[in-house]
Specification:
Layout lengths: L2 E12 L2 E12 L3 E5 L6 H9 L6 E6 L8 H5 L1 E4 L11 H11 L5 H11 L12 H14 L4 E5 L7 H18 L2 E5 L3 H7 L2 E6 L2 E7 H6 L1 E7 L11 E8 L2 E7 L10 E3 L3 H24 L1
Parallel strand pairs: 3-7, 3-8, 5-6, 6-7
Antiparallel strand pairs: 1-2, 1-4, 8-9, 10-12, 10-13, 11-12
Helix pairs in contact: 4-5, 5-6
């Protein structure tokens, strides 16, 4: 299977602080990939490494078979929409499109004009006068009209209202399907990822905690609720990811090929949010144990 991004032992350090460390991952092409994790997990660093804006401190990364940002041809394959969907406030919508055509050898002017018209954006209007949702759609249009093979988006809808987010994500989904585009989308809003992503990566503690197709990950996990008990009594092959306890009852997220058939437990399929939070909580618990061991 063709990979859109491969990283091995990838790390990036700022001074003495590691923003990303020992990141090993292989993302297949043709997916809308959701990258999710807590603030400071290294999401933006990973995306900038993939886009060629940063160089690794350790390890290696390839995107579409080449070194990110290494040649003009490699740059042309990747579109990047940064946080806050940056556009030039003093330029008009039409001037943004003309700039895009000059900077990008694979620029699709017809598609850009058609999309701007369909969105109701006025070509003569300056970007600084657009709403947040309109600026986001303009930035997405610039990324799509570049005709990349991989489109990277770093928290593109975090500042938008719910309706603007929905419209942005709907447009992204339609474009990805029409252009057979690989997408890497960073967000801390799991509900948004559920709408558009078929592949997810959980990044926490600067390391990948979980990666895979959403449907397969959900099928391999179970949410168990029942009397408070010892998870060590679960059958072999059941691995507890996270546990919560309240008022004599416990809730576990468990990874296993089959659910536990025990009337004492209520078994349900976890949501994507359940799964993401479970692996983030697992990482936080591992970090707390490591700190306690050091203090001893």
């Amino acid at each position: 299977m063709t990979s859109v991004l491969q990283a091995h032992a990838l790390g990036r350090r700022y001074g003495r602080r590691w923003a990303l460390r020992e990141c090993t991952i292989d993302i297949p092409a043709g997916h809308v990939v959701g990258l999710v994790g807590p603030n400071g997990a290294g999401k933006t660093t990973l995306l900038k490494l993939a886009g060629g804006q940063l160089r690794p401190t350790t390890g290696g990364i390839t995107v579409l078979g080449g070194r990110p940002g290494d040649t003009p041809a490699q740059l042309a394959k990747v579109g990047f929409v940064a946080q806050d969907t940056p556009v030039y406030a003093g330029l008009t919508v039409a001037e943004h499109l003309r700039l895009g055509s000059r900077l990008n050898p694979r620029w699709d002017a017809a598609m850009a004009r058609e999309r701007i018209a369909r969105l109701g954006l006025v070509p003569a209007q300056r970007a600084g006068r657009l709403s947040g949702g309109q600026r986001a759609q303009l930035a997405l249009t610039l990324g799509l009209a570049k005709r990349p093979e991989l489109l990277i988006l770093d928290e593109p809808v975090a500042a938008l209202d719910p309706l603007a987010r929905l419209e942005f994500l709907r447009g992204l989904t339609e474009a990805a399907a029409a252009q057979r585009l690989s997408v890497l989308l960073s967000s801390h809003l799991v509900s948004d990822l559920e709408r558009v992503c078929d592949y997810v990566i959980v990044l926490a503690g600067s390391r990948v905690q979980l990666a895979g197709k959403v449907d397969r990950l959900l099928a391999a996990h179970h949410r168990l609720t029942g009397p408070r008990g010892d998870p060590g009594l679960f059958p072999a092959g059941h691995h507890v990811v996270s546990a919560g306890h309240s008022e004599g009852r416990s809730t576990y997220v468990v990874r296993a090929d089959a659910p536990i058939h025990d009337p004492a437990w209520t078994v349900a399929r976890p949501s994507l949010e359940d799964l993401v939070l479970a692996y983030m909580d697992k990482r936080a618990a591992d970090d707390r144990r490591a700190v306690q061991e050091v203090r001893r």
